[in-house]
Design brief:
It is a single chain. The protein contains eleven helices and twelve strands. The chain has about 450 residues and is of the alpha+beta class. The protein has two domains: about 180 residues, no CATH class; about 150 residues, 2-Layer Sandwich (Heat Shock Protein 90). Strand 9 and strand 10 form a beta hairpin. It starts with a helix and ends in a 5-residue tail after the last strand. The chain binds adenosine-5'-diphosphate (ADP) and magnesium ion. The site of adenosine-5'-diphosphate (ADP) has 23 residues, from helix 9, helix 10 and helix 11.
């Protein structure tokens, strides 16, 4: 079935907005996650560098004598110390030969280096593999991020000022670490987010398009029903209007009084039909707005007895026997709107009479279960094919419309009856066999019993 372009457009628009909103949220989350990882990494690194530099600082400072000079005491304490111009041992070898393992051991991990620089930023001694930096170093800066000349690697470094025993500024101890490992991890995370977020947005767009379709379905359905209803109502109104129009034309041309009367009769009948149709339409609209009912105790035995009596004439005219069978010993009372309940049962009985051939029987039965009142309208009529049974409650729906035409029905009777049952928290069900007859059962909850 071709869908209305408005709904297709709305579905795409909804999906688009939804995807945009989720996309923004996902991107924000991704950005937040990246920042959180970056900050945690930097925080851990700072902690580590600060504690290493602090240990070195606190160990060395008490033995420093001359600014810019490291004495033999320091050399003993720090295995692997390498002075400019010297061939340096590897860190592992120097630690093995040294006594100050407790301090040097901390640099066993890959990527760390230590530098002692004087106040003019001249290197006095180093420990570990020394990177070559592309930028200039500022010794007095506490934290510094530096770029190496090789492999675009970055370094993070702390500079702590040292003072001699006599409290003269000595220079700085700098501890740094390569960020290569951490940067590789961050690169992977960036890659994952850059590919993952668009892929997730793509999936979300698909899912939101599908969800928007689901949300549009009931709206689409009710739009179709409204369209169908409007076209059916217009169609129903057109027939009596056409008849009225031609009767009017004929009256204008008529010369004889009986002919005029005959046309006026036709016009009266059609106006009656039109006003009934309009009344029915208004009633259906009111019922569908779920009005707050004026609820009063209604005795269903009275409703059925009155209606059987009232419709006796119609059944006699149709040569159909109309009988009443009250199977409840006590009066069956429910809370309801009596005018509407009369209308509901009357629609069912008139249908049963209309659709039962001459000589048939219509039986109105009142029964009950412990919590429901049951009204059965049973006939020996033409029956309803099973394929049509769930459609007969639709507005304007008729099984073979020509059949109903002869009865003058507009196809609203059962829709009204069902709507009334529903406003009383009940429902109508049908059982029918073609050519054998039908039973319409109204089940109404016994809200109030006596
Ligand atoms: N008791 C019945 N026996 C057979 N067919 C019925 C009976 N009641 C209703 N129907 C079918 O259901 C259709 C819808 O009924 P209704 O809504 O009352 O409209 P209408 O009577 O105006 O045609 C009828 O056109 C008729 O074909
Ligand atoms: Mg009817």
């Amino acid at each position: 079935m071709k869908r209305n372009p408005i709904f297709v457009r709305t579905q795409w628009r909804l999906a688009g907005w939804y995807a945009l909103a989720i996309g923004l949220l996902l991107s924000l989350c991704g950005f937040g996650l990246y920042q959180a990882v970056l900050h945690t990494q930097r925080y851990i690194l700072r902690q580590k560098l600060e504690s290493l530099a602090g240990t070195l600082h606190d160990t060395i400072e008490p033995v420093l004598e001359q600014p810019g000079k490291l004495n033999s005491q320091v050399t003993m304490m720090l295995p692997g110390l390498c002075f400019p111009g010297e061939v340096c041992q590897t860190l592992a070898n120097s630690i093995e030969n040294a006594s100050g393992r407790h301090i040097a051991g901390v640099f066993q991990q890959q990527g760390y280096y230590v530098r002692f620089v004087d106040r003019a930023n001249q290197v006095i001694a180093t420990i570990g593999q020394q990177p070559i930096f592309s930028g200039s170093l500022v010794a007095s800066e506490y934290w510094q991020q530096l770029s190496g000349v090789k492999d675009d690697s970055n370094f993070y470094q702390i500079s702590m000022p040292l003072r001699t025993r006599s409290n003269i500024p000595w220079g700085y101890v700098q501890v740094g670490r390569s960020l290569q490992e951490w940067d590789a991890y961050l690169y992977l995370l960036r890659l994952l987010l850059l590919l993952g977020v668009p892929f997730a947005i793509f999936l979300v767009t698909g899912a939101s398009w599908w969800l928007a379709g689901l949300a549009m379905r009931p709206i689409d359905l009710s739009y179709r029903q409204m369209q169908q209803f409007t076209s059916d109502a217009a169609h129903e109104l057109r027939t009596p209007l056409t008849v009225l129009y031609s009767a009017l034309e004929e009256t204008k041309l008529a010369e004889e009084l009986p002919e005029i009367h005959q046309n006026l009769d036709i016009m009266e009948r059609q106006i009656g039909r039109l006003s009934q149709l309009v009344k029915d339409l208004l009633l259906i609209c009111r019922l569908e707005q779920r009005p707050s009912l004026q609820l009063n105790p209604c005795n269903l035995s009275d409703v059925l007895t009155d209606l059987v009596e009232e419709l006796e004439g119609m059944s006699v005219n149709a040569s159909v026997t109309l009988k009443l069978d009250l199977r409840t010993p006590a009066p069956t009372v429910i809370l309801g709107d009596s005018a509407q309940l009369y209308r509901m049962v009357s629609n069912l009985i008139t249908n049963a009479i209309h659709y039962t051939p001459v000589g048939g029987t219509v039986l109105a039965i009142l029964d009950r279960t412990p919590d429901e009142a049951l009204i059965h309208i049973q006939d020996t009529g033409i029956g309803i094919p099973s394929s049509e049974q769930n459609r007969i409650f639709d507005r304007f729906y008729r099984v073979q419309s020509d059949r109903a035409r002869t009865t003058g029905g507009s196809g609203l009777g059962l829709a009204i009856a069902q709507a009334i049952a529903q406003t009383h928290q009940g429902r109508i069900i049908v059982q029918s066999e073609l050519t054998k007859g039908s039973v319409f059962t109204v089940r109404l909850p016994l809200i109030y019993t006596q």
